[in-house]
Specification:
Elements lengths: L16 H30 L4 E10 L3 E3 L5 E6 L6 E2 L4 E5 L2 H54 L8 H32 L8 H18 L2 E3 L4 E4 L8 E2 L6 E4 L5 E7 L11 E6 L3 E13 L25 E8 L1 H6 L7 E7 L26 H24 L1
Antiparallel strand pairs: 1-10, 1-14, 2-9, 3-5, 3-8, 4-7, 5-6, 7-9, 10-13, 11-12, 11-14, 12-13
Helix pairs in contact: 2-3, 2-4, 2-6, 4-6
Length: 399
């Protein structure tokens, strides 16, 4: 008979220490996450909710095309791509031969017209003298007729002599009337009008002005200070009026077009400050700007081929509205940008009491953009006309 030995009860297994460490880690991690969420909520409530940002923003600016006002053959190009040009500097020259010939013909025609017109003024004195002569001849003829008429009964003069004297009076009267008509006709062309304002002179002067402007426009000046871009013109090329030859980009007048989502525009107003970063310089360089306007429509509305949402299946796509942001000129001069560069934009929308539309009362009192480089040609044409009129008027007066 086998005796059964008593079995010892198993010892209790203590809880591993690693479970306690895991519990402490999870509790600590949970508290850390909650603290981070609370900190983020406080940061968002105090700071982040007052800003709207986007990286869909690009540098924009004016691209001024240089186009000829007259046709011609290109004989010289004074600037190339990437070069800086000053306003008024010649960029392209066209062959001026034909324009120079047309100008010479117009100047000669003006000189001839001035001499002819000045002659009309000089003839006024001669016509007055002719009237005086005809008046004297008429008085003499009338005296002769009166004497012969008194001698009619004496037989000293014949009836034929009296008829001749009477015909002489009529002839003198007709000659005097013709002289007066000539004077009136001449005065109709000269009275109350100086030589320079005579219609014939004005017409010839207009032809000189047109020919001079065509001649001056064979030299194309830079309409604005900037950098040359997209030069397509070549020496020897025959160009037509309006053909684009090259472009000038003024890098001191750039702005940023930031495309914000439609849900970001509720509190955006004109005049709100903005900070910008460029991929060109990195986050270390900060630009400061200001919202100056919101576009009147979304980018899709002004696209070359706008979406036709009324046809076929439709999927809602969040639209973006271009917002123009003006840059600080001093910062732009220190760190120049280029058209088309990417920017990161953050707008401070804390102050939302303004308006998102430009006020209709803020009418411009001066042009937004202008150039005066073409005024010199008109002034030079006026000086040329005045010189021709003065020279030819003096020449006629000396005769």
């Amino acid at each position: 008979m086998q005796s059964s030995a008593p079995q010892a009860a198993p010892a209790p297994t203590p809880a591993p220490a690693r479970n306690g460490k895991r519990r402490v880690f999870l509790i600590g991690f949970t508290l850390l996450v909650l603290a981070a969420l609370v900190a983020y909520g406080i940061w968002w409530f105090i700071f982040a909710r007052h800003f709207e940002s986007t990286d869909d923003a690009y540098v924009a600016g004016n691209v001024v095309q240089v186009t000829p006002q007259v046709g011609g053959t290109v004989i010289a190009i004074h600037a190339d791509d990437t070069e800086r040009v000053e306003m008024g500097k010649p960029l392209v020259e066209l062959d001026p031969a034909d324009a120079r010939v047309a100008l010479a013909q117009a100047e000669a025609q003006l000189a001839q017209t001035v001499r002819e017109t000045r002659t009309l003024f000089v003839n006024t004195g001669a016509l007055n003298a002719n009237i005086a002569l005809r008046s004297t001849e008429l008085a003499r003829a009338r005296d002769d007729l009166a004497r012969r008429t008194r001698l009619t009964g004496t037989g000293a003069v014949s009836g034929e002599d009296i008829d001749h004297a009477r015909n002489a009076v009529k002839a003198a009267e007709s000659a005097l009337q013709a002289a007066r008509e000539q004077l009136a006709s001449n005065q109709a062309l000269t009275s109350s009008t100086p030589v320079a304002e005579n219609p014939n002179v004005l017409r010839a002067a207009a032809q000189v002005r047109s020919a001079y402007l065509a001649y001056a426009r064979t030299r194309l000046p830079a309409p604005i200070t900037g950098y040359v871009a997209r030069r397509s013109v070549q020496v020897g090329q025959r160009v037509a009026p309006g053909a684009p030859l090259l472009s000038i980009v003024p890098l001191d007048a750039l702005w940023v077009d930031a495309n914000f989502k439609e849900g970001q525009l509720a509190q955006m107003r004109i005049g709100q400050p903005a900070t910008l970063h460029s991929d060109l310089y990195g986050d270390d360089v900060v630009y400061h700007g200001q919202v100056v306007g919101l576009a009147a429509g979304t980018g899709a509305a002004f696209a070359l081929l706008p979406a036709q949402n009324a046809s076929g299946n439709w999927i809602k796509v969040v639209q973006r509205v271009p917002v123009r942001i003006r840059l600080d000129p001093k910062e732009l001069a220190e760190k120049p940008l280029r058209i088309g560069l990417s920017m990161e934009v953050k707008v401070d929308i804390a102050h939302a009491e303004g308006t998102s539309l430009t006020s209709s009362g803020a009418a411009r009192t001066a042009p937004a953009y202008e150039t005066r480089v073409f005024d010199a040609a008109d002034r030079e044409a006026e000086q040329d006309i005045a010189r021709i009129i003065a020279d030819n008027s003096a020449a006629v007066a000396k005769r």
